[in-house]
């Protein structure tokens, strides 16, 4: 049985950038629902008990076809939100350093260029989905969008930074102003977590 990981900060800690009510509903309702529905989907498939969620998503093509889409939706929803909450924090630094900064500069010329490209990608995403900074199998950094709860892990990409651009991630505070949510989200990015993901050898 999968369980919701504890938030590494108080639900009000991301104010004023991400408001308390949005965090509470997003975490306790949306994230919890993905977790509960994933458990329901897998309850008659004991072969997956004890398997880590990233292993399941990485090997999505091996999941029985009758539950595969439900695992993509709910397993992806569960895992993507785990990454999302880990990827933000109060009192965050404004930019990364070390290897992550070097790799961003190599791929996107400058940190400012990276931020602009990532923001544009997230603003332009049609419908519900996610914008990601990922590392490819050959080691380059890329910005990709995924629809719904599709996860880069299923495409052989390693997620470093996860931005939820579903309306439920911002609508209570920002209504239709997605660009304003994204501009504020940059103030709470946890660069340390992204750097650790980059520096962890691929399993
Ligand atoms: Mn969400």
Give the helix/strand layout.
Elements: H1 20-42, H2 53-58, H3 65-86, H4 98-108, H5 111-124, E1 129-135, E2 141-147, E3 158-164, H6 171-174, H7 178-185, H8 191-199
Antiparallel strand pairs: 1-2, 1-3
This protein binds manganese (III) ion (MN3).
Task: Tell me what the structure shows.
The structure is a single chain. 48% of the residues lie in helices and 10% in strands. With 203 residues, it is mostly helical. Manganese (III) ion is lined by residues 26, 30, 81, 164, 166, 168-169. Residues 26, 30, 81, 164, 166, 168-169 line the site of manganese (III) ion.
Head-to-tail CA distance between termini: 23 Å
| Rg of Cα set | 17 Å
Strand portion: 5-15%
SSE succession? HHHHHEEEHHH
Estimate the helix proportion, in percent.
40-55%
Shape: globular
Q: Give the spatial strand order of the biggest sheet.
A: 2-1-3
Overall pLDDT metric: 96
| Structural class estimated from helices and strands | mainly alpha
Total E-strand runs? 3
Largest sheet descriptor: 3 strands, antiparallel
Query: Helical region count?
Result: 8
Any ligands, ions or cofactors bound here, and which?
Answer: manganese (III) ion
Low-confidence stretches: none
């Amino acid at each position: 049985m999968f369980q919701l990981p504890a938030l590494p900060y108080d639900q009000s800690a991301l104010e004023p950038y991400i408001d308390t009510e949005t965090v509470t509903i997003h975490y306790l309702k949306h994230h919890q629902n993905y977790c509960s529905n994933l458990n329901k989907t897998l309850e008659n498939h004991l072969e997956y008990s004890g398997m880590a969620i990233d292993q399941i998503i990485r090997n999505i093509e091996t999941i029985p076809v009758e539950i595969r889409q439900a695992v993509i939706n709910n397993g992806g929803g569960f895992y993507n939100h785990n990454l999302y909450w880990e990827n933000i924090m109060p009192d965050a630094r404004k930019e990364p350093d070390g290897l992550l900064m070097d790799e961003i500069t190599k791929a996107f010329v400058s940190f400012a260029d990276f931020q602009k490209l990532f923001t544009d990608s997230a603003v332009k995403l049609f419908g519900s989905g996610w914008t990601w900074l990922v590392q490819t199998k050959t080691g380059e950094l890329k910005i990709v969008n995924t629809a719904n709860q599709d996860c880069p892990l299923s495409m052989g990409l390693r997620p470093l930074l996860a931005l939820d651009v579903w309306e439920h991630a911002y609508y209570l505070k920002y209504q239709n102003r997605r660009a304003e949510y994204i501009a504020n989200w940059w103030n709470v990015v946890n660069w340390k977590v992204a750097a650790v993901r980059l520096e962890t050898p691929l399993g």
